[in-house]
Amino acid sequence: MSVPRAIRQAFLAIEQSEGAGARVRRSIGTPKLRNFSPFLMLDHFTISPGAGFPDHPHRGQETITYLLKGAVDHEDFAGNKGTIETGDLQFMTAGRGIMHAEMPRQNPDGSANVGMQLWVDLPEKLKKCEPRYRDLRAAEIPTIQVDDGKVTVKIISGQSHGTDSVQELAYTPVWIFDMTIKPGGKITQPLPIGWNAFAYTLKGSTAFGVGKEQTTVGSYHNVVFEQKGDSVSAEVSKDAKEDGQFILVAGLPLDQKVVQYGPFVLSSQEEVYQAMLDYQGHANGFERAKGWQSEIGKSMVH
Description:
- This protein is mainly beta.
- Helices cover 4% and strands 50% of the residues.
- The chain is globular.
């Protein structure tokens, strides 16, 4: 018998400014939700043309970017560059150090670029690994229909209803699903026991949980599940005026200390100081940062 997970909390992600002219709804990495290993931060971003995230460093974490609308260019100091478009993902492992820029493309209709960025902690022994990128294109993501076609699941990572995702894309084990439920549809998604899990709602109203515990939430909420249990249930009322869409994420908690200072995520205060020194001194992974400027970031320099 599947044991449904109860909801620990559900809260609205408030919009704030971030980067250069970007608008962000941050839910993980706020006073409402910290120490939720392996997750460090979750941003639902809206970047208008002329805004973005110019040259900046990272060390000690992975970032997973899922583009919901538009296109974003990226470029780093190792000469990696590319573009992710609507429905694509980029998995970036910062490891011992990376410096990069993420800038939106100008959409023909002038609309904003919208997406999700999740920061995932790296196991301590991998924090000094070489940086790497992995892109996952929208066309490569297995998509299944559940509940007589009333539920659509994009299996970005993990397994759902007998279908596996394409490949392991992150060092820290994480399952990610993009689910859309039509009015009257419902789904029960099994999750690994002991993993931390949350759902972030993108549109409509979705009811999570079962029985008396069931809670209905609107858009832009983070729904945090208890660790106990092995499945998450979600449904949309048959009277609903629109589909419910949410991202469901689960990850293996890491038993380690997290000391975060901006883009550096390490295991001790000393390592954070060292990261700042290495970055300023172009050492220990940041050698290529010396004198480097991204081409795409130059549009921001006024």
